[in-house]
Amino acid sequence: MIITSNYGEAGALDRFGPAAGLPPILSGHVALADQSRPPPTATVAVVVGGQLDQAVTLFESCTVVGVLDNGMDVDNQEQNQPIALCRNPIGGLPAIWPLFRHLD
Predict the structure, then answer these.
(1) Would you say which domain of life the source belongs to (predicted)?
(2) Each residue of 30-67: b (16+ CB within 10 Å) or e?
(3) Domain segments of the chain: what residues?
(4) pLDDT for residue 17 is more than 90
């Protein structure tokens, strides 16, 4: 699964991800946090955007595997944000999922 930091990232991946074979998209941003829940047995998540500082405290390991790049050098809130592969959520993903919820 992919966990995004906001509805813009989630929307883009939801729109273009299926054709690329991407896994389900989740986000803790406002009402998106209520629309889907992570599978209880999930042990791996791709964390996209500005929540890496939080993710490293919630998973046993997180490795940055890339950064977001819009390809147009447009300076926006997503540009150069990390993409991390995070493994083994501490306490299980359902337990930490509420901590990804945010209203900003």
Answers:
(1) Bacteria
(2) eebbeeeebeeebeebbbbbbbbebbbebbeebeeeee
(3) 2-100
(4) yes
What are the Cα distances from residue 74, in Å, to 51, 71, 77, 79?
Answer: 20, 8, 10, 7
Residue for token digits 């273009």?
A: 16
Q: In what order do the strands lie in the sheet with 59-67?
A: 25-27, 2-4, 44-48, 82-89, 59-67
What is the per-residue pLDDT for 104?
87
- pLDDT tens, residue by residue, 60-84: 999 999 999 999 999 998 999 999 9
Chain-centroid distance of CA 12 in Å reads: 12
86 three-state secondary structure? strand
pLDDT beyond 90 at 36:
no
Residue type, 41: T
